[in-house]
Inverse folding.
């Protein structure tokens, strides 16, 4: 993102559509990383007691679902200070608008030496076919060493419509990643990205603050569109005819290691559908798959 | 007595000689049997697994496409399941 405008660029938005996440290393200042731990400890206690069905009234202030983000965690909350950082606001605005609704948050602390391990899963329940999406922001205020409890994730899995636990059977997926990185790193996930918690054999607690946000407005061209006209291709951008090498289409053609063979064409079609929504261009296409089918439907009077 | 080892391979396409894209291993011998070869994936194709002594239990059949859902993506579609039976001491 440009230094003076924290919204995402068209190039970054295209990568989010293709890969289902974006990562920003050491985005949060170290001062906030250090001070937020006390807030997270208090919130973790509340969340865990609530999960056990115990009374938490009168405890640490934490927002209810459907609260606009701007009203969550007022000062002097350090969680609120993190959420109101211009660089976080830029990410949020670009993907789900200026004031999305708070869905929920959670503190995922993996103590040093924890063997807790999750199966691969998708959060919540299966999504409907609408292209609108929530985001989940993963914030690691403490550095995570390789293999020490970083989130496992499968890039490019977010547009597959699956039941939450239906992907548990995949022990290993080619090209999957496990997070490690410096303190203050933030990752933003499309709600559908397959992921899982992993054991922490290290000697440092793994801290993760996760928040889910729902859009309140159409997610159409909310990012910094200075590079939009240069990158947004028209439906003639077609591998088997004339292909541009510098367009959004080219970002969508790059597949993950597990997306091989003819299956990749369907991945590309799903990415195209999401970009149609985000760009507001319902004629957008990559490699002519939708255009060909829609043209025939018009010819036959079915569209 | 015998115990089962089960290997799932998800392949790029519906043919056994296409590339492995995901895998899972379940070991009924509790570590007393052979392990998988090193490498990610352990077998580049299902043919390589057959050559290493795995027996095919199940391969995916083509399925009818539901109108309107022809282009949707969901679970990994090309799931092949293998077993090998290992003699272990009781």
């Amino acid at each position: 993102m440009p230094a003076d405008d924290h919204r995402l660029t068209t190039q970054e938005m295209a990568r989010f559509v293709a890969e289902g996440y974006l990562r920003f290393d050491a985005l949060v200042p170290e001062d906030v990383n250090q001070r937020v731990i006390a807030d997270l400890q208090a919130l973790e206690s509340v969340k865990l007691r609530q999960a056990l069905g115990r009374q938490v009234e009168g405890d640490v202030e934490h927002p209810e679902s459907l609260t606009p983000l701007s009203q969550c965690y007022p000062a002097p909350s350090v969680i609120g200070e993190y959420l109101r950082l211009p660089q976080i606001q830029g990410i949020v605005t670009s993907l789900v608008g200026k004031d999305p609704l708070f869905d929920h948050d959670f503190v995922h602390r993996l103590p040093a030496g924890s063997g807790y391990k999750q199966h691969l899963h998708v959060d919540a329940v299966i999504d409907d076919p609408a292209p609108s999406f929530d985001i989940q922001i993963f914030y690691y205020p403490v550095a995570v060493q390789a293999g020490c409890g970083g989130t496992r994730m499968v890039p490019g899995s977010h547009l597959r419509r699956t039941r939450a636990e239906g992907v548990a059977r995949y022990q290993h997926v080619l090209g999957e990643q496990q997070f490690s990185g410096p303190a203050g790193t933030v990752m933003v996930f499309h709600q559908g990205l397959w992921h899982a918690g992993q054991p922490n054999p290290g000697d440092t607690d793994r801290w993760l603050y996760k928040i889910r946000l729902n859009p309140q407005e159409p997610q159409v061209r909310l990012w910094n569109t200075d590079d939009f006209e240069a990158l947004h291709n028209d439906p003639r951008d077609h591998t088997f005819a004339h292909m541009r090498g510098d367009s959004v289409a080219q970002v969508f053609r790059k597949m993950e290691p597990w997306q091989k063979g003819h299956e990749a064409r369907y991945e590309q079609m799903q990415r195209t559908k999401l970009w149609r929504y985000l760009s507001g261009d319902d004629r957008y296409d990559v490699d002519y798959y939708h255009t060909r089918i829609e043209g025939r439907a018009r010819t036959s009077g079915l569209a | 007595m015998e115990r089962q080892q089960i290997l799932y391979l998800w392949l790029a396409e519906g043919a056994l000689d296409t590339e492995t894209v995901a895998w899972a291993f379940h070991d009924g011998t509790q570590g007393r049997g052979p392990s998988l070869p090193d490498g990610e994936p352990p077998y580049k194709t299902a043919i390589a697994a057959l050559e290493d002594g795995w027996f095919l239990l199940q391969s995916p059949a083509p399925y009818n496409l539901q109108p309107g859902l022809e282009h949707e993506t969901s679970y990994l579609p090309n799931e092949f399941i293998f077993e090998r039976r290992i003699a272990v001491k009781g």
Q: What stands out?
A: The beta strands of chain B are 2-11, 20-27, 55-58, 79-87. Chain B has one domain: 2-61+76-81. Chain B has a mean pLDDT of 95.
